[in-house]
Each structure stands twice: as C-alpha cells, then as structure tokens.
Write a structure and sequence with these properties.
mainly beta; Immunoglobulin-like; five-stranded mixed beta sheet; globular
Length: about 230
C-alpha cells in the first residue's frame, strides 16, 4: 500500500491543525500521529508527494488507499506534483503547511474532478466496539446524487449522504450484508455489493469513488481502519 502524508482540509488555508481521532492504546507510545490517504479524483493524474523537500512516495494513482503512516507530531511542508515533475523547475499542484497531533489518526482524500479538485480530511476512530463492527461511508463520487446506503432489503445504514461527505461510524452486528446504494428516498439500487463480511471488533470505511456516468466507473472500496 502506498503511504501519503497528511495535508489540509481547506484549500484556502495555509496551516491546518485537524481534530484528533483517537487510536488504540496499543498503537506505539502515543507520540506519533497516524495518517493515510485516498486518491479519489477520477480524472486526476498520478502524483508524487514531497514532505519537507523529500519525496516520500511516487506515482500515486486513482483508487490508491494507503496504509496508516506514523508521523511525529508537529508541522510539515508538503508539496504535491504531477508524477515525474521536477520540483526544482515546476510548480506544485498543491503546497501546504500541515500540523498533526500525537495520538491521533486521520484519513485524507483528494476528491472531485481535476478542474475542481478539493481535499477532504477526517479524523478516524480506530477503537473497536466489543461485540460489534464499526462502519462509516464516504461519498467521493462527484456525479452521484445524495444517497442512502442500505443493508438489503430493508435496513438503511446511512441516510442522505451527499458528495463529498463522510458519515459518522455506525455499530453493526458482525455478519455478512448485501449492500445497496440508492438515491436518497428511493428503493431502487444504482449499485450493489453482495456478501460484504464485517467482523466483530473490526473498524471499516467504505469509499464510494468513480463516476456513475462515464469512466472510470463507480466503485465501492471497503477497507479496515487499523494500524499495521
């Protein structure tokens, strides 16, 4: 898995300190932050990412989701370039100062079409729930309407989630579900994922990416929110 470094939520802001997302007490000594990223911009090219002038990863493509990367608490200068760009001769696509807090976990997503690309950052809550699974949904499909996310046939898990929102975590039973994505208020699914197995004690994020009309096509990516 590729590893991204945290960048800010609001493009207009130069320096950002994001709200803490508590991690498990077993995660190191508590001095690190943990960050991961999602490339959810459907027509954006692959990118290279630099942290304090050092390239930390290269050729990050659409639908890549990183594992969590430990990062010492503090402030960093981050620059994002098109893959293969010369940072001494070309301007970055994004250049930000960022700040991360010890003992916190975050997910960052690049969302929207390239001509309207934006950054969404959310805090992650990695603590498991005893006897339950935890699940949240991220609506990162720029041409999809607001949606309800259901466990077929009758259980609405997340209601009226619109681009580019990320829901709160929901506790559910650890079992398999037939997931349907429906326009808000409709019973007709526009996308289905059968037999989605959720384990007790695990924490998940489901990322809706791609396009309902056009390419790359719509997809739902389920990942565990856990430190490796």
């Amino acid at each position: 898995m590729k590893k991204w470094i945290l960048i800010c939520t609001l493009i207009a802001i130069t320096a950002v300190c994001m709200a803490a997302g508590p991690v498990s007490a077993a995660a190191g000594d508590g001095s690190d932050a943990f960050v991961r990223a999602v490339h959810a911009s459907p027509d954006a090219p692959a990118v290279d990412i630099y942290l304090d002038k050092e390239r930390v990863l290269e050729n990050v493509n659409f639908k890549d989701i990183s594992s969590y990367l430990p990062l010492k608490a503090g402030s960093y200068s981050l620059r994002i370039f098109a893959a293969g760009a010369n940072p001494k001769k070309e301007d970055p696509v994004i250049e930000k100062n960022v700040e991360v807090a010890a003992g916190s976990a975050y997910t960052l997503a690049a969302v929207g079409p390239l001509n309207q690309i934006d950054l969404v950052a959310v805090s992650d809550q990695l603590e498991p729930s005893e006897g339950k699974a935890k699940l949240r949904a991220a609506h990162f499909s720029p041409d999809a309407p607001a949606v309800d996310i259901a466990a077929a046939p009758d259980t609405i898990l997340f209601e009226n989630v619109s681009f580019p929102q990320v829901s709160d975590y929901l506790e559910v039973d650890g079992e398999s579900y037939n997931i349907e994505i429906r326009p808000t208020g409709s019973q007709e699914a526009v996308f289905q994922v059968p037999n989605v197995a959720l384990e007790e004690g695990a924490v998940y994020s489901a990322f809706a990416v791609g396009l309902l009309e056009g390419e790359p096509g719509f997809d739902l990516i389920l990942v565990k929110d856990e430190l490796e």
